Model the fold of this input.
Amino acid sequence: MAEAHQAVAFQFTITPEGIDLQLSYQALNQIYLSGVRSWKKRVSRIRNRVIKGVYPASPSSWLFVVIAILATMYMRSDPSMGLIAKIQQHLPLSAQGQTMLSALVFSTLLWFSLILALRFCLKLLLSYHQWIFEQHGRISNTTKVWVTLLRLLSSRKPLLYSYQTSLPHLPVPAIKDTLSRYLESVRPLLTDPKFKRMTELANQFESNLGNRLQRYLKLKALWATNYVSDWWEEYIYLRSRSPIMVNSNYYGMDFLYVTPTPVQAARAGNTITALLLYRRKVNREELKPSRVPGTVIPLCAAQCERMFNTTRTPGTETDVLQHWQDSEFVAVYHKGRYFRLWVYRAGRLLSPREIEYQVQRILDDPSPPQPGEEKLGALTAGDRIPWSQMRKQYFSSGVNKRSLDAIERAAFFVTLDNEEQGMRGEDPAGNLDRYAKSLLHGKCYDRWFDKSFSIVIYKNGKSGLNAEHSWADAPTVAHLWEYTLATDAFQLGYTEDGHCKGEVDRSLPHPQRLLWDIPSEVQAQVHSSLAVAQALADDVDCHVFPFSEFGKGRIKKLRISPDAFIQIGLQLAYYRDRGGFCLTYEASMTRLFREGRTETVRSCSNESCAFVKALEDVGAQKPEEEQCRCLFKLASERHQNLYRMAMTGAGIDRHLFCLYVVSKYLGVESPFLKEVLSEPWRLSTSQTPVQQIELFDLKNHPDYISLGGGFGPVADDGYGVSYIIVGEDMINFHVSSKYSCSETVSKTSVTFISV
Done:
């Protein structure tokens, strides 16, 4: 109860002599300092709004315009062409005052006009995408001029969100072009009769319902910031009623060869600190805007807004993403108990050593879980509707609501896991696979899968994260995780005995145990949700494969795109595994546009299939080397072109998806759209790009290699493949499938990749 007493700023008692007021100066000081921190954040937000509101100009440019106008007037010239005189007529001041004020008004109006003109020019420049289709070393004069102008307009240091209003809107492709590209993508997968039937369905759709749906979609594109993103978030993620664990959430891993410290509490201290430092940079907009690698072209940063203090709350028909402006604590789970860990004191972020001290207090706490508390997190791992019903009925008031609020409003969630993980022991490969499964689903109740992301710190100091997918895509979380790993290892560091650096204020109040009153009905549902989640987790086969025979360096010497090389390799691996081809999903980003998220690259193309068939031609004793080389080059160029088209808004699947949503709103059926959207993605792939290579000195610290992350299979009879290209000589693969399908084995598919 000591914490409760410290939280009371004053007490009073009524006596015969009057009211005896007893002030707690320590508590009042805490309140004052917390208030100062809040006001500093408000002032910072206002300042940032002004700075990014006038970008690419600067607030100080207003003074330059005013001085220029006054100087011109002093020289007996009228730069306003009579406008200043007209403004003077409406000002009830002296002649001198009228002149000065009218000049200020005109200067301000001129300044605003110049800002709008500059922003319009910047938006026009960012709408130019021809550069992406030009070959390396063969840049056109138009693109050279464009780059020069873009550099000039972007010369002033931008804030994180400075480019947001200047990014172009995602264009709606012509329906004829989308259908043509779709038919081309399915040609290698269909027999002649099936392709003829699909072509007829597409033609009927285009000539009848398609144009009607397209008009509604163009109307939305004129009105909305992005015609895809809100529907994609709602219908693909939030309206799904199945478990988000495995099916939607994904994971990120620690360093492959290195664990910075074996002390669990110390690793938690540095990791939590690094994450909060990143949050501070996001709040202050001090992060550099992400850009297309090797260019000055900015990417949309909208996904950063809901990174922290965010939770997905369940509903009967659809879930809702809730975001809070700030949070001064994190939620911690250890041995079946939930804690609230305050990370600020008197407006000051605790030092890594102090957070380690607090985490160690949680690890040393001997108290047992309350009835029903230990496996409560299983509600977030099971089906969404039962969780919604339990939350509404039993967690909407009283002690349960207060404790649930502490978890949902926390900056993020931390699990202190009792297991040891990583590539270790006598079976490093098998332990690496178990490490992946642990991060993907854990014990199905020791993560809070609804949080925007959860950090896992293992007993041996290994770490990782599990991220909810609806609020952002993997590159946004990967950027956060890269910063966290680098800051932990290279900036914050550890003492020789593995502890965090810094001093400890031992008067810190203990972390607060969250209290629960879990009735038998909730415990029964927890048991039921856990059974659903456990069955799903037990069915997932994960295999992590660090490939180091060669990497990006050797591939680029062949003048081949590393991503295209890997994707064609995956087509070859699938063909060897299953004896055929399948619809293949590769995630591409559309963040060149405002509020852009992803688009699908259909990697299985006519060209890639031709190469694989030539290479695997069983009729030929030895494949024609020159012919295979030529076909491989064509397949690579085709894949690159598909990727570029997806990035620039000329993809297939998001357009067809939105047309389908419009048809549902209108209550009309489309046999073509219904069939297209029901096709299974048996090979779902994604590259996790390394975005901050400057944070990792791989030359001097080659062991500090990131393992990347992975996700569960999309189809029951398919594979989920994630890969990360690390440095010049390594590619890490994460392959998942389901044990229940006899035709898919994650380790076998990786064997085919390596061959």
Remarks:
- The radius of gyration is 29 Å.
